[in-house]
Amino acid sequence: MRRFACVILLAVAACTGSVTSQPQRFIVFFQEWSAAIGPEAEKAITAAAQYAKDHPADAVKVTGYADTTGSAAANVYMSHARAQVVADQLITDGVDQARIAVDAAGATGYALSSQESRRAGIVIGGP
At a CB cut-off of 8 Å and minimum separation 6, what does 29 contact? Predict the structure, then answer.
């Protein structure tokens, strides 16, 4: 009986729109001072594009990051270039350009390696 009640509650919540899905996140890493997409980055973007196509109502946000090497202006430029190249590949892979927002975060710190900072994050869905 309890399982049945949970199923009904979930169905009612889904019908009323009160169940929200968690955003899906994908990370694309880059080499130092590069916005070139390598094979591993391409796999991540392909997976993100497929998820986005499977969830056509969800917005897509791409945010680029850079490590702390270089000037603040250069890091904003690099983070934007990384975000834009990822967005362009998503579009090539079939995601509607109108769904994609691009943001440049500039330089960001890291915990273990500067590789963590040389990335673009793709977030699909969520609030």
Answer: 40, 41, 115, 118, 119
25 located within any domain: yes
What are the φ/ψ torsions at residue 55 (nearest 5 degrees)?
A: -130, 70
Number of structural domains (the chain) is: 1
Whole-number mean pLDDT of the chain? 87
Is 115 within a domain?
Answer: yes
**How far apart, in whole angstroms, are the C-alpha atoms of residue 58 and residue 23?**
9
Report residue 96 as tokens.
Answer: 């509607």
Q: What is the DSSP letter of 90?
A: H
Q: How far is 72 from 106, CA to CA, in rounded Å? A: 7
pLDDT, tens digit, for every residue of 24-61?
A: 999 999 999 999 999 999 999 999 999 999 999 999 99
Q: By residue range, what is the domain housing residue 52?
A: 21-124
The CATH number that applies at residue 119 is 3.30.1330.60
In this prediction the pTM is: 0.82
DSSP 22: P
Does any domain span residue 101? yes
